[in-house]
Amino acid sequence: MTADQGGKLRVTIVGSGLAGLTAARILREQHDVTVYERSGAARATGGQGLSTTPNAIRILDSVGFDRARAGSVKSRGYRTYDKAGRLVQEIDPRHEETFGVPALTHLRADVRNELLRLATAPSDELGIRGHPARVVFETPVTGLDAEKGVVTLEDGSTVEADVVIVADGIHSRLRELVLRSAEHKPKKAGLTCFRSSLLAEQARAALGQLPNWWTEHYHMFAAGKDGTDRFILLYPTRNLESMNMSCIFQTREENKDTTESWDANGDVEEMLGVYHDFDKNVTKLFRVVNEIKMWELQDLDPLPTWCRGRAILIGDAAHAMTPMQGQGANMSIEDGEAFRLLVQPGVSADRVPAILRRIDELRRPRVDQVVKNTRESSFGLSAEERFTRLFQNADYNGIVDYATKRAAP
Ligand SMILES: Cc1cc2nc3c(=O)[nH]c(=O)nc-3n(C[C@H](O)[C@H](O)[C@H](O)COP(=O)(O)OP(=O)(O)OC[C@H]3O[C@@H](n4cnc5c(N)ncnc54)[C@H](O)[C@@H]3O)c2cc1C
């Protein structure tokens, strides 16, 4: 039996990443929300920096995301360089004029902390109705009965809910329990990424001054264009005080065993070796970066469904993709917002499975297309084509608007 206390549902969310916390922020307005997170409060996975595009910004704005608290930097666009450091192309999409909102860059920990605040701060402080979500850290979920909405915690206890949102990331443990099949696993994309960050003072020390793409708010994209699929993506974060560095290259045999985990350590000499023929103004920065992490990029083939009974997969658990279009987190935020369909008058526990199927029906084809575009961006697409596909995502304005537009003749 499920409880339906006058439209108030019991919601369990597994995972406090960007997907889970966005869902918590939406659902707390009407329902009792508990988030179980296996790690501590400071956990933030998935790369040091994060680019958010207008599709996610509209959603973040709609839930009171405070850009000042998150140190968000407005991104002007993209400057593409060749490996010798010559400017090849500048793309300024005029986000605000074209899409009504900017694109932003951040430290991803800052985005997660702000979403955590939005999920858990007192309702008065946020000026919204409902009650704060409860986040239970260091509590892994180990089992799920999707039909009944029951999760099992590591200590063996069980929790029954009307809705279970599975947002436990790319290596989701619960995915196979929703799909009743263990065959849907992420696949290696053939590319490895060195991830790092550095502070403005470190960059000044290395170069004498900050590069102009940094002070002028551009993404700096340096591409090998020599058949090696090597490129470097840099962009400013946290009020221009720090910088994200993602350096992607074809996976090499010797790295294959070391890059399974987000936390594998990279080595600066190895990084310098991979990019030995790139502009020295860029590779000089390698010597002063903070910790270097190394990860082999992976993605997930489209799933046959995201939901079963009272449970639904979202975020990387549903559609892990590589960062080649910078859309994984943006899609995770879109997913979290889709639970507005459960924040409606008259929603009751017995309608939950049908509403989850509706979310699946609306979200999955859109995200499958983004995964396809991301895959095609990995190898061989021109910069123009890559950006054209990226901008196709930009006009999204939430699930209700999307459903209305799709229904229009
Ligand atoms: C190098 C790199 C750069 C990227 N850059 C961008 C970018 O610029 N823009 C963009 O949009 N996307 C980017 N992405 C993708 C983005 O990081 C992910 O798509 C996004 O973080 C997914 O969020 P999530 O909430 O689904 O998963 P996660 O952030 O992985 O969160 C999952 C959470 O679930 C918890 N968890 C796992 N298992 C359990 C369990 N059993 N019980 C309880 N808790 C559990 C984990 O501890 C974690 O906190 C990038 C990815 C990479 C690798």
UniProtKB/TrEMBL annotation:
Keyword Cell inner membrane listed: no
InterPro entries found in the cross-reference section: FAD-bd, FAD-dep_Monooxygenase_BioMet, FAD/NAD-bd_sf
Limits of the FAD-binding domain: 9-374
Pathway annotation from the record: Secondary metabolite biosynthesis
The keyword Flavoprotein belongs to this UniProt entry's keyword annotation: yes
SUPFAM superfamilies: FAD-linked reductases, C-terminal domain, FAD/NAD(P)-binding domain
Protein name (database record): FAD-binding domain-containing protein
Source species taxonomy: Eukaryota, Fungi, Dikarya, Ascomycota, Pezizomycotina
